[in-house]
Amino acid sequence: MEFEKTFMDFLLEHQETHNRTYHFLILMNSLLNAAKRIQFYYQIGALRENLGKSGSTNVQGEEAMKMDEIANELVKHYLQSSGRVIYAIGEEDEERIEMNMAGGRYFVYFDPMDGSSNVPHSLPVGFLFAVSKRNLEGPEDLHLRAGREYIATGMFVIPTGTFTLALREAGCWRFHIDETMNYVKPTRMQLPESRKTWELSYNSANRETFAPGVQAWLLANEKKYAFRYMGALAADVHRILTSGGAFLYPAIVNHPDPAKNRPQGKLRLLYEASVVAFMSEEAGGDAVDETGTPILDIVPHRPHQRTALYVGSKPLISELVAVLKGS
Ligand code: FDP
Q: For residues 239 and 201, what is the distance between their CA atoms, to the nearest angstrom?
């Protein structure tokens, strides 16, 4: 018989090699438990009529889906019971979710169900998270961490059954769920250098709302690459990490109805953009905002801060940085 290496074997080895504690393992176990439960609820979602709207509005002013609420409750439960979390920031909660303020070791930022337009169709959605650590050397001021301070980020694509985890200075890894609901077979992700497989992913219906330079770049370059867009960040970035290319969610600055402009971008910095930016960097890529600033350098001022996002293969992101900086 052949046995694949499990996620826990992989992580145990990682922690031991780097002489680390088991606290992170316990935290990761809680995130995996949450993901497996979300996976289960999502798979039977249509049967239990859980794929519709919940009737309430979330902190982002969007109509919440039942699955948003189920996934949020699951993640909070497992994070709380790990005993390792100081506080969490979740997409569905306006305020930070205080857990073990005195004894916790990690800050967790998460989006329990990303890509809500796919939910009614049972199509791929994401559970994204980022982890940073308490200051162990001195007093802890509980500030919101920039991506550079993250120690790990992860994304589960549900119900596909894939899990991608990036560990600071230790690479970006992909796992697949097996028949026993274990994530197995770690594979290191490295963005491919050859442009042959590169893809562009962005909401093309928004194209005329982008800054003129971005529109011009798209016109001049998009025919060189395949176009793919699933409408769920985790699923779209999942492809980019394998195939190379770029995922873009530019600022909306030219909307015919100016009230619908989003100069700050749409995606959330802490638990969406920085999660995939961290992965991209660990896989040899890059990620910037509308000013060409690396996403991981942006210091957050608010938990639900938004940003534009350009993420993927380095050469493409450099071309876009030149456009964004106006040179
Ligand atoms: P959604 O609003 O459907 O939850 O986080 C927001 C997000 O999905 C991302 O997952 C996705 O990449 C993007 O927004 C899709 O936005 P558009 O519908 O504007 O394309």
A: 9
At residue 327 the predicted structure's pLDDT band, cuts being 50, 70 and 90, is low
> Is the entire prediction scored with pTM above 0.85?
yes
Task: Give the list of residues 6+ apart from residue 51 with CB closer than 8 angstroms, or none.
Answer: 45, 65, 66, 67, 119, 120, 122
Alpha carbons 183 and 39: distance in angstroms, whole number: 12
**Look-up of token digits 């249509």:** 46
242: Cβ–Cβ under 8 A, 6 or more apart, which residues? Answer: 189
Q: Are residues 187 and 238 in contact, defined by beta-carbon separation less than 8 angstroms?
A: no
Average pLDDT in the 11-35 region?
Answer: 94
Of 11-25, 39-53, 63-77, least confident by mean pLDDT is: 39-53
Strand partners, 152: 131, 167
Ligand 1 center to residue 325 CA distance, Å? 25
From atom 4 of ligand 1, which residue's Cα is the shortest distance away?
A: 115
- Cβ partners under 8 Å of residue 315, min gap 6: none
Which residue's alpha carbon is nearest to atom 8 within ligand 1?
Answer: 115
CA-atom Rg of the chain in angstroms: 19
CA angle 298, 302, 308 (to 5 degrees): 50
Distance CA 166, CA 172 (A): 4
Average confidence score pLDDT of the chain: 95
In the predicted model, what is the mean pLDDT of residues 105-117?
96
**HSE-up (13 A, CA, CB side) for residue 60:** 18
